[in-house]
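for the record, two folds in this file. i put them one after another cuz i was lazy. first one right below, seq on top, structure tokens after. the second one comes after a little note so u can tell where it starts
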Amino acid sequence: MNAADIAWVLIAAALVWLMVPGLALFYGGFTHPKSMVNTFAMVLIAIAVGSIIWFAVGYSLAFSGDGAILGNLNHAFLNGVSMVKSTSGGSIPDGAFALFQGMFPMITMAIIAGGVVGRMNFKAFLLFLIFWILLVYTPLAHMVWGGGLIAKMGALDFAGGDVVHISSGVSALVLALMIGKRRHMAELQAHRPTAIVIGGGLLWFGWFGFNAGSSLAANGQAILAFINTNLAAGTAMIAWMLIDMMLNKPIKVSGLMSGAVAGLVAITPAAGYVAPGGAAAMGAIVSVIVYFGTTFVKEKLGYDDTLDAFGIHGIGGVFGGLLTGVFATKAYSGTAGVLEGNWSLLGIQAVGILITIAVVVVATYVIAKVVSFIVPLRADENEEAMGLDAFYHGETI
């Protein structure tokens, strides 16, 4: 075991955990003040749900066995998971790997809240998350990182383009469509710019652990992923700002942070697989796509993705995954991308993304339907009109 690698992975795990309260602040800054506490609660509850279910069965289902879609329960409740050695030939103990991976379902489930805050029954959301981590997240984690179907295809997903961003973004859209639009839809506004800046900053900071920690070692790949993460976010922020300038729109801090997050989403599947120049290009390209996806496309189609969970994470994750197939280099990923003459990787990436979307759409719809038979998915009309904070939480901002 390597002490430096263990220390880095533990720090990286803590950074990913920090992203959840960061996301709560980021989302909260955009949420109407009468439902800001509800937004905090919907995001933060993902920490508890994720911790318990990952410990009980999630880790085992994702990283045990050799099934195409799902693992087994050999390591349920972390049974047989060593805290002092690796059974896979790695430089960190299995327990450290389980801990690090356990942070990812937390932030993934928290992202989903962005599509439905302000109108979803809190009890229904809690039940939804319990089923979702079991039926969506763990199978995808196994298929992509646990040696399952998508991994065997040769698809690349360094830190969670498929598993985290596409899954959460698409799920948020499906759930939003099933629940229906807000009764009084309003343009997304920054009600608390300070919360957006602090929350967005914590997300950016935590993303260094999210991406660079996925190297699972304090090595050159971690350095590359760290550099690429920052570069992609920076170019994405600038691209978002330039579009606003060209459209003669004000340069809002909320827009700058949204652009940065779009770049962070984009580079996630590619962080350890592309050269810094490719990372910069990916951030800029995806930022432009997400900008128009969250404005003109959203307005044209008329869906109510409250805080752009689908627009930023779903759309950003899809194009980030596709561009991984373009910019991946053999030197860093072991597989050449389109720019090095290998078009097949782009096709593999596309198939992996389509499988991810299919799993998420079907499973999310079924889970939401089942939950609706237990408790209403949508908040009462009066509760929604007056704000969910006082009704569900007894607290207000």
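(here's the note) second protein begins now
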Amino acid sequence: MDIFLQQILNGLVLGSIYALIALGYTMVYGIMGLINFAHGEVVMFGAMVTISVVNALSGSGLPGPALVLIGLLVAIAACMLLGFTVERIAYRPLRGKQRLAPLITAIGLSIVLQQVAILIWGRNYIPFPQILDHDVVSFFGASITKLQITIIVLCLVIMAGLLLMVERTKLGRAMRATSQNPAVAGLMGVNVNTIISATFVIGSGLGAVAGVMVATNYEQAHYYMGFMIGLKAFTAAVLGGIGNLGGAVAGGLLLGIIESLGAGYIGTLTGGFLGSNYQDIIAFMVLILVLIFRPSGLLGEKMADRA
């Protein structure tokens, strides 16, 4: 039972991060019908920028949490600017073209951003400074760090805030109107270009937060880190129902728990056959099974909730 509870806690930490990134995928898809495969690299940039800022301010005498907060704010601003630039330069000119064109552009942009990261930060892993509290808290025989508790709580607060924004604010209504019919939304006074740019900006800000969480949890970052975590977050979005915000949250949490159980609890029962070395395989097996048996995702796609 202790192993099971431990893996559930690990899965909630991992799944919260997946869900936060998956929201960026599903928002863009809901508005444009486009999978932004460069979103994982935005997550990576968030982690890298934060580490750079924290290292630059390390001699200022500020406490660790304050340094991380400053780095996070700078990373959010940088990633929002990056998201706005990507939409304006790479995707807007392709709007209305064949779907294959923006898909290829997204993949190419992902590679470009990786190479830019190499030029700035190099190819080696960059350690996150040891400035945060990693004290362990016991929970019914399982253990979780204070940092991981903070990650879970912060992710849930951000996701709840985003869902409320989409449902209750003027911007959210404009997003839902644009997702249903951009032409009619434009006739009703909605600036479609502004709404699409805002969607990319918000999604990129969420990606920056997720990148910082990954870097602080694993205490390192790498130019290639966004590729795999981006694919897994995309898997989470598909699992929950691409285009459905609630589905992205549910899919992320579920995928994180499935991965953790496969890496730990199930791995123990099978003598390591499905251990940690196979957790990536488990994630993509889930994607394949969902695409085969329920292509619309577990919660389906609710057009009225798309954003």
